[in-house]
Write a structure and sequence with these properties.
single chain, mainly beta, 5-stranded antiparallel β-sheet, 17 strands
Amino acid sequence: MGAMIANENATARARFAAAMRSCKRRAKLLAAWLLLACIGACGGSTDTAGSLALLAGDMGGAGNVDGAGTAASFNFPGSVATDSAGNLYVADGENHTIRKITPLGQVSTFAGSPGVFGSADGLGTNALFNSPEAVAVDGANNIYVADTLNNRIAVIERPLKRSTSAGSRETLSSGGSLNAPLGLVSIPNGHFLTVNGGDGFITEITPRGQQVAKILLDNTGGPPPGGGTLFGLVFDPHRGVYFVDDGTNTVNLLH
């Protein structure tokens, strides 16, 4: 299928800089609360204000412990996504891993080697990430990972079909328009979108890893312009793509 967003050429910008760290910290703190919370339908509440319930993690501090509920710990989780079986996958940024939370709240390390950063495809702890900040799941339950400081998108194909509980990472797309990718979301044409933490662009990528389009969404903040401004993507089938712009302190809609 064709690209969902229009293509736009732009001069290549400087890579991810110090401003990214500040944005990244704020994004992680926000995402940590979202991870630990079950709002509205998840909590079974009809209260439109939503109800807050601790799902997993130790609010007493960062760590890297697998276990059930509050016995588990994370280190600046950046994003969550769910598969059709109700499992949550967490980009555990400072642990450099992808964690899995079952519907019963059991946390395990799914891919990556805890506390070890690098760049390697492989199964389970043989896979290496460098501050992964976002995950997304498509309709076939493939898991996509924004491997932020490696400037790449990785894919873990159909983990629900595997006989092992460990995820197998493969590089899908790297370099090109990717500049410290943060947000990540699957869209109806089978492609997915990612926003860069190192500049103000959103990039569209096919399931085969081809970068087919990009748009400049913000040139404030930085340096460089647009650096450290964009994170957080959500697709609404009725309206479009929402994204958070930290440079302008706004939530925006891309039609």
